[in-house]
């Protein structure tokens, strides 16, 4: 396949030309059909609108789909991540290793249980944590490694597990974006001690909002359930004694959300196959586009293409001195062409105020805890994360159903049009 630009369409839309992608081309995510409507309406009529039968079924069905023994349906991926941190015994003064570039919840979930994030730079090519740098971040206070399968690309879990086993560390998988991604043919969420998934509006499995904690370890499952339901040892599905045995939150999913999630789960495998086909076609169409760095998928690491990430070679484009400003200009020009790109995360995590100020709970806590040590968050430690942050833009849902090969061709034409005329921006 080849995306072509005719003489008539050569003027950039941002300068008054015709957009490459006509309005209305990109369909809405997620597709809604009669199954979704029926299951949600049946839940509404069922009368159990808190943690009801659909929530019970959803956590069992998702765990089975992913290949886990246990699942807990939560109200967000952030909640599920906090459950992972608590289940793994991370607490006051403990350190958890996490990538320097990801969504903020991947690190703030550590603060939620009074532990300390220790950041490691990313590998620029994969955008995931640089596994060669993890071991240098291990200290006597390290309790866990929290890896993020960012944008739906699996981390090299063999490398992570080797470090974890040498230092007796827990491994937490942030798979919030990575439904169906695989490492060496096995789904993410089955490699660590426990894992968290999200099912909010943008995710490949959408229930509106929601999350899922998964594990194969019964002890971790029980600890996560305590945090999930008020610190109690018995769930709402059991005979409760309403006694808090530990710190607890109310992280449960409601039945209407779960009904929607269950309906979407029946279609998830088909969605993922379409995303992969669309991503492969887009990569082929964009090959050789000037100034464009296309995604890399290492051998053994499977991608679900939650986000299709474009990076811009600012040296080639002649804007190495102002990468962020010119990246924003390129993204604006692509949106004018009808290509729905966005800048997914504009800050590396160590640069965020909560970490630079070291003041999560007030009075310097948890960093000021008597059990904590001083942690260095100086930004020059994370050059790959900073370069990526300043030079990327993402396609979030444009490659998902109901969008087909024709939509992909138009999106590719819009991207190539901008990159081939970037000198006019």
What would you say about this model in short?
With 425 residues, this protein is α/β, with parallel strands linked by helices.
Summarize the structure in words.
With 425 residues, this protein is of the alpha/beta class. The chain has a domain at 34-266: Aspartate Aminotransferase, domain 2 (3-Layer(aba) Sandwich), CATH 3.40.640. 34% of the residues lie in helices and 13% in strands. It is built from 13 helices and 13 strands. The strands form 3 sheets. The protein has a 7-stranded mixed sheet, with helices on both faces. It has a 4-stranded antiparallel sheet with strand order 10-11-13-12. Strand 2 (95-99), helix 4 (105-111) and strand 3 form a beta-alpha-beta unit. Helix 3 crosses helix 4. The protein is globular and about 70 Å long. The protein starts with 33 loop residues before the first helix and ends in a 5-residue tail after the last helix.
How is the secondary structure organized here?
Blueprint: H1 34-46, H2 53-66, E1 70-74, H3 77-87, E2 95-99, H4 105-111, E3 116-120, E4 142-148, H5 157-167, E5 170-174, E6 182-183, E7 186-187, E8 194-198, E9 211-215, H6 218-228, H7 255-265, H8 268-286, E10 292-293, E11 308-312, H9 314-317, H10 323-336, E12 341-342, H11 353-357, H12 383-391, E13 392-395, H13 405-420
Parallel strand pairs: 2-3, 2-4, 4-5, 5-8
Antiparallel strand pairs: 1-9, 6-7, 8-9, 10-11, 11-13, 12-13
Helix pairs in contact: 1-7, 2-7, 3-4, 3-6, 8-13
């Amino acid at each position: 396949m080849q995306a072509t630009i005719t003489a008539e369409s050569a003027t950039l839309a941002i300068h008054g030309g015709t957009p490459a992608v006509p309005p209305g081309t990109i369909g809405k995510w997620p597709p809604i059909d009669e199954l979704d409507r029926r299951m949600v309406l049946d839940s509404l009529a069922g009368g159990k609108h808190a943690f009801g039968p659909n929530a019970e079924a959803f956590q069992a069905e998702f765990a089975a789909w992913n290949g886990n023994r246990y699942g807990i349906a939560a109200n967000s991926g952030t909640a599920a991540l906090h459950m992972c941190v608590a289940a793994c015994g991370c607490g006051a003064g403990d350190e958890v290793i996490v990538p320097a570039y990801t969504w903020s919840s991947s690190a703030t979930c550590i603060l939620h249980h009074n532990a300390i994030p220790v950041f490691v730079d990313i590998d620029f090519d994969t955008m995931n944590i640089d596994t060669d740098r993890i071991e240098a971040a291990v200290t006597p206070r390290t309790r866990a490694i929290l890896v993020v399968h960012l944008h739906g690309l699996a981390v090299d879990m063999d490398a992570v597990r080797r470090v974890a086993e040498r230092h007796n560390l827990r491994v937490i998988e942030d798979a919030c974006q990575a439904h169906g991604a695989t490492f060496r043919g096995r789904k993410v969420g089955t490699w660590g001690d426990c894992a968290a998934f999200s099912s909010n509006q943008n995710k490949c499995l959408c229930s509106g909002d929601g999350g899922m904690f998964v594990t194969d370890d019964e002890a971790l499952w029980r600890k996560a359930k305590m945090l999930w339901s008020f610190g109690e040892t018995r769930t709402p599905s059991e005979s409760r004694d309403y006694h808090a045995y530990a710190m607890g939150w109310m992280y449960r999913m409601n039945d209407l959300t779960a009904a929607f999630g269950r309906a979407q789960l029946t279609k998830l495998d088909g969605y993922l196959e379409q995303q992969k086909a669309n991503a492969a076609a887009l990569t082929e169409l964009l090959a050789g586009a000037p100034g464009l760095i296309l995604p890399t998928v290492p051998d053994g690491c499977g991608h679900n293409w939650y986000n299709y990430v474009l990076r811009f070679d600012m040296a080639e484009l002649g804007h190495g001195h102002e990468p962020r400003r010119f990246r924003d200009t390129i993204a604006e020009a692509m949106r004018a062409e009808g290509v729905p790109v966005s800048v997914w995360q504009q800050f590396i995590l160590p640069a965020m105020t909560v970490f630079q100020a070291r003041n999560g709970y007030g009075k310097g806590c948890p960093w000021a805890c008597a059990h904590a040590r001083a942690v260095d968050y100086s930004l020059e430690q994370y050059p790959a994360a900073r370069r990526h942050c300043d030079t990327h833009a993402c396609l979030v849902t444009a490659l998902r159903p109901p969008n087909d090969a024709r939509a992909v061709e138009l999106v590719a034409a819009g991207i190539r049009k901008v990159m081939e005329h970037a000198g006019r921006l």
